[in-house]
Design goal:
It is built from 1 helix and no strands. The chain has 53 residues and is mostly helical.
Length: 53
């Protein structure tokens, strides 16, 4: 009984880690797209930066 519970717990942990990694990839792609849009749509003129940091 204990080995079965350990296997189920391990499967649950690995599924959660896989879901978190996929969610982080989605967030990274969204941030990259927003950065590219801001880079392309920056104001014309010298060294103007479109970000505030």
């Amino acid at each position: 009984m204990v080995p079965l519970l350990l296997v189920l717990l391990l499967a649950l942990i690995l599924f959660g880690a896989g879901f978190a990694a996929k969610a982080l990839w989605v967030v990274a792609v969204i941030v990259l797209v927003l950065w590219l849009v801001g880079f392309v749509a920056r104001p014309k003129g010298g060294s103007a930066r479109w970000y505030r940091w």
